[in-house]
Amino acid sequence: MRILVFSVILVVGAVFADEHWWQHANFYQIYPRSFKDSNGDGIGDLLGVKEKVSYLKQELGLDAIWLSPIFKSPMADFGYDISDFRDIHEKFGTLADFDSLAQECKRQNLKLILDFVPNHSSDEHEYFKKSELKQDGYDDYYVWHPGKVLSNGTRVPPSNWVSVFRGSAWQWSETRKEYYLHQFLVKQPDLNYRSESIVNEMKDVLRFWLSRGVSGFRIDAVPYLFESEAVNNVYPDEELSGKTDDPDNPDYVVHTHTQNLEETFDMSFQWRKVLDDFKAEHGGDDLVLMLEAYTPLMNIIRLYGENGREGAQIPFNFEVLSNTFKDSTGKDFYDNIMRFWNVLPSGRFANWVLGNHDNKRVSTRLGVPRADLYNIALNTLPGIAVTYNGDELAMEDVYIPWSETVDPAACNSNPKDFMLYSRDPVRAPFQWDDSTSAGFSTNSKTWLPVSPYYKQNNYKLQKSAPRSHVKIFKSLVRLRKQRTLREGGFDMKLVDEDNIIVYKRELQGVSTIVVILNFHKSTRTVNLSKVFTGLPLEFEVITSSLQTNYVDGSILNRDVITLPADAAIVLEGTV
Questions:
Q1: Out of 212, 420, 437, 443, which could bridge 42 as a Cys pair, Cβ 3.0 to 4.6 Å?
Q2: Residue 19 has what pLDDT?
């Protein structure tokens, strides 16, 4: 066994004396359309989520849930096109249903986080209708421009900016006789954050939901908030990337004028202040800001705050999600962790994300054999864990054929290539049991097909099994409540041909927790005495991957820990 000389050591115990609820929390993302249908229409809803609050809190032991958009919407992009920021989409329920869910979450001490989509609205929103008519006070709520007129008299868009969903980011309005900007779908016009009125209006939206009992927000598509201003009424073209000859492909240009502008950071700091001011006025626990930004790492770090201004407590760390693959080695995973950890500012808390509604499921993307390994890492690394619903069961993507595809990202492509873009497979209904539609709905027809293998993998089956993915997950969440994982140091090393990761979480006077991740495609034995000094002679097995033969609670000698391929183990001992 070869031990690499580089490792990371951090002692964090003294920092957490004044601990806040979110600092070591496990946040759980719910895709409401697919979680639980309470009324048999084949679509998940708020009362369905309410039915499962006990599962989330009492069985899994989670700290917080965040819901993908539930607001009123024509559903061109399944809720990310909002037509009323202060109302609930009828398929999800009513404001009264939301209040009922919020009250149940409060009763069981489960924090409720909402998705907030500030970059754009639906073109069916009253804001847009009034802006399109140039009504006073709404004229500048969106980004409008008359376009350019060529020498032959043809009118064309103001710039070469390309939408995320292909094609020009500009759309002509016959009503206003101008183009409007839409960085996503045509039906998702961009709000204009250079308008003080829209900035204040969206802050009021945050306050509206805070007053209804939410504990914070996950902010969608943060890098797109601002675009370069027109100079002499001319918008700048973006530089060609050279990656593709297809001018409709978003990779055709380098998005220097439409993403990650300096004003974006200021806006996120303003939103944090809205939350802090609300807490100062009304009391209660911390209110949390989570930011979704697929952006260079140092931009993520800036979103924590700078120059004395507070930003998000949780700017999502996508370094692991975006750079870990089915064939990743131990060193790959180590590097992905350390790339974020090494630049984490002092006094800030790391967060770890492996799955969400926009990426293939962990079990599909990274392989079922490693599903437990990654859940073990997610829940034992220092800081905050974010879990996508169903990953606790090692659910896999569901194949959705072209004929049943509904995701606009896929529908805008073609029958040959749609699977490259479709997010439908990761959004298929939750697998609760072996009854009709996997227990998600009493209706045999659901908005997306359920997995054909739901009888072989569902929560009811895993709950009754002697060992299962969900039982491993529960053990990990329980362990996260203990002081060693919350306050202990962090020392991580690469061993055995760079394909085994061993890290130690130690709190003096309490316990030592050791985690081993085996990325080899064969069984390996680890001698912990050659990795760390001063360890306990024996360790108790807290949990381990499903493919191991270890029994939780059994005692192991520190010098002989054997792990099958793609497996992991969590051990705890006291000196």
A1: 443
A2: 82
